[in-house]
TrEMBL record:
<dbReference type="InterPro" id="IPR000595">
    <property type="entry name" value="cNMP-bd_dom"/>
</dbReference>
<dbReference type="InterPro" id="IPR051257">
    <property type="entry name" value="Diverse_CBS-Domain"/>
</dbReference>
<dbReference type="InterPro" id="IPR018490">
    <property type="entry name" value="cNMP-bd_dom_sf"/>
</dbReference>
<dbReference type="Pfam" id="PF00027">
    <property type="entry name" value="cNMP_binding"/>
</dbReference>
<dbReference type="InterPro" id="IPR005105">
    <property type="entry name" value="GlnD_Uridyltrans_N"/>
</dbReference>
<keyword id="KW-0129">CBS domain</keyword>
<dbReference type="InterPro" id="IPR046342">
    <property type="entry name" value="CBS_dom_sf"/>
</dbReference>
<dbReference type="InterPro" id="IPR018821">
    <property type="entry name" value="DUF294_put_nucleoTrafse_sb-bd"/>
</dbReference>
<dbReference type="Pfam" id="PF00571">
    <property type="entry name" value="CBS"/>
</dbReference>
<dbReference type="InterPro" id="IPR014710">
    <property type="entry name" value="RmlC-like_jellyroll"/>
</dbReference>
<feature type="domain" description="CBS">
    <location>
        <begin position="223"/>
        <end position="279"/>
    </location>
</feature>
<dbReference type="InterPro" id="IPR000644">
    <property type="entry name" value="CBS_dom"/>
</dbReference>
<dbReference type="Pfam" id="PF10335">
    <property type="entry name" value="DUF294_C"/>
</dbReference>
<protein>
    <submittedName>
        <fullName>DUF294 nucleotidyltransferase-like domain-containing protein</fullName>
    </submittedName>
</protein>
<feature type="domain" description="CBS">
    <location>
        <begin position="159"/>
        <end position="216"/>
    </location>
</feature>
<feature type="domain" description="Cyclic nucleotide-binding">
    <location>
        <begin position="17"/>
        <end position="115"/>
    </location>
</feature>
<dbReference type="Pfam" id="PF03445">
    <property type="entry name" value="DUF294"/>
</dbReference>
Amino acid sequence: MDSPLADVERFLAQTPPFDCLEPPQLRRAAAAFEAVYRRSGTEVLRIGEANDTLWLVRRGAVETHDAQGNLIGRYGEGESFGLQSLLGARPVRFRAVLIEDSLLWCMPRAAFDDLRAASRAFDDFYIRSLEQRLVGALQDSAAGRQTATLFLTPLSQLARRTPISVPRATPVAEAARVMAEHGVSSLLVGEGRELEGILTDRDLRNRVLAQGRDPSTPVAEVMTATPLTLEADSPVLSGIVAMAGRGIHHLPLVRDGAVVGMVTTRDLLSLQTHHPLYLAAQIQKQDTREGVVEVCRRVPKLFELLLASGLRAEEVPKVMSTITDAVTRRLIHLAQARLGPAPAPWAWLAFGSQAREEQSLRTDQDNGIVHADDVPAGADAWFAALAREVSDGLDACGYVYCPGGIMATTPEWRQPLSGWLRHFARWATLPDPTAVLRVSIFFDLRGIHGDAGLVARIREAMAECAGGRGRAVFLSALAHQAAHYDVPLGFFRQFVLQRQGEHRDTLEIKAAGLLPLTDLVRVRALQGGVTVASTRERIAALVARGAMDRAEGDRLDGAYRLLCGLRVRLHADLARRGEAPHNHLDVRRIGHAERAALRDAFLVIREAQDALKQDFP
């Protein structure tokens, strides 16, 4: 006669996601469940209470309702409920009531977490299920506005306490005692207003205990130096983007140069598990290229969810670029694990839209490598192999090869620092706009991984390129390129539409709007010594330096946001219809107010072009 446990195993073996567990894991799962019988009408989960249990319906049915009594979901045999509170370690949001006499199986959080850690397929099932439920929940506009408001909340409102600091000479044993005493998982290292580093519980595990270091070792030897910080008034969205994309767990907040707070992944965990930005963290978990490719198949759904969440359309490209960064870093990590340590300090560079953090669906890759000048013989073979593995991986993930070959696989864009400095010195003396056009993409540059010092030196060369003896010729060539795009406005401010072909009677919103705008802002940035890559950050920096009138900056920023938002929504509409993304906007499909605003945006671009022509005749 079979044991009751064998019956449980048989049922689980036919119930997703338990059907993907290996036999030993399946037996552990069966043994971890406790069966409970409850009558119809029983309230299993109450709003505001903690939930440390995975609830599985063996027989019967359950309904969940929000605080207003709205039906959220109905669950039957083989389905789980209460996942949002369980996965997010947060209070219950939806009341769960039995609508039939039911037999429920209950698994404690510890056993559930063990299974998630043991099986990626099991873990992914619950994350995907959460995303699918989110799609439905976000269709309600009020919920969307609430989510958007949450993402725009200042990070400072999440900071629970003032960070604790210790001097750099503090022994790690004393630092650990301070962390335990205050119940914190990190300490800042430095004195006064200066932030020299951060020491986390992970640093203590990996850099002290795992390496057998002496407890008297100064924290300066094991801390993470020059940690990433954000302004305290930055929106929650920026914190999620920074932490998920870089795989960090502690984020100091600064105001006027001084640290005023700290947020952790615990503070943002509920947002990450309820939002597709969690993909960035999922990417970090993959230990094969195939795993990264599989996660990237969910990126189009991410695009749709970001808009459904109420996030402003012009913010979507920044999030998409963060996902690209996370994919790139993971592929680099996997390649290095196979190739071994790098032969010299180096960095991976992104150019173009990834550098500007302005990516949408279906983008190609533009990248390069810079490494130190002093390298051993055969070092280029290592960097060439790295470039090939990462570029091939990006292509497999949907970031297709650059048609113009602007990739680290091309020797010209895989150079020692001196080679890149020669590139920029030569570009400063290019004689005509056509030649400048071919290299303008390199002036949108950002370091994705590796030695920040090498990237900083290239940025200096970029600024020198526009500030040396060849400044007038070079900037004039760039300005000529930016000022001579055709803005599609005719007499009486009528749109000039394409007259023939597949996209007749449409506007090519990227070529006619975004390209001229980003190009002319790039010229002004180089002219003003601004080396950040993002178009909006360039505008803000120019206004802050007094190099651009605030009213002009506001007009350019508004035009960029409108054009970017229209393009994102166009791509989302095409994706929903199963069509390949393109940039041809049918102005008849947008409202009257947006058509008027689009005309104004084109006028702003034309005025900025006229100003360039005057400054660079």
